Model the fold of this input.
Amino acid sequence: MTNSQICLVVTKIKIEVAEPAGRRERKRLETREKLFQAAVQLFAKQGFAATKVEDITEAADVAKGTFFNYFPSKEHVLMYFASRQLGKVEACMEKAKEGKEPIDRLLRVMAHDLLSLPARTPDLARSMMGSFMGNEEVRNVIREEIAGRGRNLLAQVFEIAQKRGEARRDVAPYEMARVFQQTMFGTMLLWTLNPAEPLSGILDRTISVLWNGMRAGGDAQKRK
Done:
């Protein structure tokens, strides 16, 4: 499957996630979510590579052929996850435009939301990260969706923060977005190596330190 074909599938998935219409469509989305949740539980338990489509459909209690009505391959379960993540960043950006909440609060909520699924267990986080990196098709989609579109959306959030006087203006919004993404990924990775405490607490402290360096009048600016 070519990258353009993969992107078309991901786009189709995103539309279906974002725009449910009618009872039949709701049932379709419920079945997709059921398959997705069954898949991620199996990925956590036995790893991505060892999980078969038959395992997923059995856990979801649907016919094997049903899986392919929603996901062309097992790898597309991860692509669906990527589209969900992008939707969370889009939601943060739209709330930032509304201007009703401080940007740092929106970023904190979004960060917890983005890592809520991988944070279920260290094994699940390790399995998902390994699958993202180990499959070229999935890796290409992740790069395009998360490192590409997702970073651009985040940059818009930081640009809004700068215009509202909440974020320092001597760093480009796109650079802030890159640092934010790398911090989230690194936080999750290090947690999987030493999960001595829940990821949520570590994430809160990480966001506080990160925002302290990004906020307007923060310590990083005072030292200049």
Summary: Residues 51 and 165 are 49 Å apart (CA to CA). The chain has eleven helices and no strands. Confidence is low (pLDDT under 50) at residues 219-224.
